[in-house]
Amino acid sequence: MYPAGHAKPGTLGDLKRIPDFDAQSGALPVKNEIRRNLLRSIERGEPLFPGVHGYEDSVIPQIVNAVLSRHNFILLGLRGQAKSRILRGLIQLLDTEIPVVAGCEINDNPLRPICRSCRERIAAEGDHTPIAWLARDQRYVEKLATPDVTIADIIGDVDPIRAARGGRDLSDELTIHYGLLPRANRGIFAINELPDLAGKIQVGLFNIMQEGDIQIKGYPLRLPLDVLLVFTANPEDYTARGKIITPLKDRIGAEIRTHYPTTVQEGMTITNQEAWTARDSHIKVEVPEYLRNVVEEIAFQAREDKRVDRRSGVSQRLPITALESVVSSAEQRAARTGEADAVARVADVYAALPAITGKLELEYEGELKGAEVIARELIRTAIGRVFSKYFGEVSFQPVIQWFEAGGDLKIPDDVSTSHRFQQLNRVQGLMEHTAKLGVTNRKDEAAAAAAAEMILEGLWAHRRVGRSEERGFYAEKPQRAAEPRERENPNRPRRTYN
User: Fold this and answer.
1) Are strands 284-286 and 341-343 parallel, antiparallel or unpaired?
2) What is the mean pLDDT of residues 87-103?
3) CB of 230 closer than 8 Å to CB of 74
4) DSSP states of 177-220 as a string?
5) pLDDT one-digit tens code per residue, 471-497
6) Residues paired with 132 in a beta bridge
7) Average pLDDT in the 74-85 region?
8) Which of its termini does the chain have fewer beta carbons within 10 Å around, N or C?
9) What is the C-alpha to C-alpha distance for residues 349 and 356, in angstroms, rounded to an integer?
10) Which of 101-105, 169-173, 373-377 is modeled with the greatest confidence?
11) Roughly what angle, to the nearest 10 degrees, separates helices 59-68 and 30-44?
């Protein structure tokens, strides 16, 4: 970026007339530029990677060390651990804009050009060579590695049409059509799922990282690119038994492990940030805190469940999409009953099953049961955990006795909030406990009814009341007492064996 107080240079001569521009501004190597800007951000106390939560004491310090060391690095982690988001956050550490030779395909530095075309142009035009200014978001190139990616996609290829038009030999550097990596020159080049690249492309990567030269169609080309290389991969693939070649692995400066949120609260912070819950609708939907807790707890329970494939992981997208579906279910119900406001209920979590089952990769035992059965069990377990968190050892004996006295409670999904509240209010002692779930005013029928349903679901999760699709909530049948053993007669003759 050009210094304050100077007009934006339009030619190479204008750029040279700025004092110390080469050492202080947009002509720095990209790793030095990012390192300098990172140190400035740390000194000012600015947040690093805003929007990324739970990594403040683990992943981010390691990334800072890698950047300060001018290392290329890789993020190893399961799906849904914000790896791509972190890499895109590196853009903020670039200068606002930098000078490039106008029209250059690889963003050549006007003061130190590396491509033959720019060198010849500057030699011919001198200080009159026009320059352009490249914004920071144009200096980030990202590619998802797939088996069909070719060396031409990443490095480049000979363009026979360009050679024919210019009357040049195919080995001439000016006939090359550059791939993504050269076009990321003086910027950041990110590859997601690195091990999925073919071996020969991985060889091309480590060669250009180490030596700065490439081969296209057998023609050697010296191209000392100025680029920060960053990658992501699944830890299962990034091993000697996986699909990564050892020489490339050896040339990556830092391996940084990402992880899922370590606490439910961290997960809720991420989910609340990412989920689309503030809808552009006339229907206002409120999701109580305890229900957000349940949604997040589902993901935590799934990550610990032996029937779910831990090597695949349970993405943070599970609670995000589940919460969005919860809001949609409540919104739909309000639209059907003609209400302007709605409070999400436990039933809306069950309505979000399609957003949960698709995020679960199951082991053999789980496949036998089916994803929907597993998801329902995870919801029930999550409700039980949240219920215990809010109520601990609270006795619900009056509520349980109401059911044991013959009370049944089944409320259709399509009834109004007022009718649902009236039905739930019949259960003895139930509404008295809603305050623990944040209901400060029992006259708020929507909030009170949703909290009361949560309590009944919690009691069902702990097997203190029963529930079925046909009957709704009812009293658990007491287990039949075991038949007493026949009292032994002391005068009964004993059988003996010889």
Assistant:
1) parallel
2) 93
3) yes
4) EE-HHHHTTTEEEEEESGGGS-HHHHHHHHHHHHTSEEEETTEE
5) 899 987 644 444 444 444 545 544 443
6) 100
7) 94
8) C
9) 10
10) 373-377
11) 130
Neighbour-count burial of 177, counting CB atoms closer than 10 A to its CB (0-12 exposed, 13-18 middle, 19+ buried)? middle
First and final C-alpha spacing in the chain? 105
Domain 12-257 top-level CATH class: alpha beta
pLDDT for 165 equals: 64
Residues 6+ apart with CB under 8 A from 410: 470, 471, 472, 473
Q: Is the pLDDT of residue 242 over 80?
A: no
- List, in sequence order, every residue forming a beta bridge with 214; answer none if it has no partner: 221
User: Tokens 């005068």 correspond to what residue?
Assistant: 491
Per-residue confidence (pLDDT) for residue 484, from 0 to 100: 45
Annotation: CATH topology of 260-390: Helicase, Ruva Protein; domain 3 (1.10.8)
- Rounded to an integer, what distance in angstroms lies between the CA atom of residue 475 and that of residue 394? 19
Sorted by sequence, the CB contacts under 8 Å of residue 16 that are 6+ apart come out as 111, 127
Sequence spans of domains, the chain: 12-257, 260-390, 393-478
Q: Are 297 and 94 in contact (CB under 8 A)?
A: no
Longest dimension (CA), the chain: 124
Cα–Cα distance for residue pair 401/480, rounded to 1 Å = 19
- pLDDT, residue 6, reads 59
Query: Cα torsion for 169, 171, 173, 175, to the nearest 10°?
Result: 50
> 384: burial class by Cβ within 10 Å (0-12, 13-18, 19+)?
buried
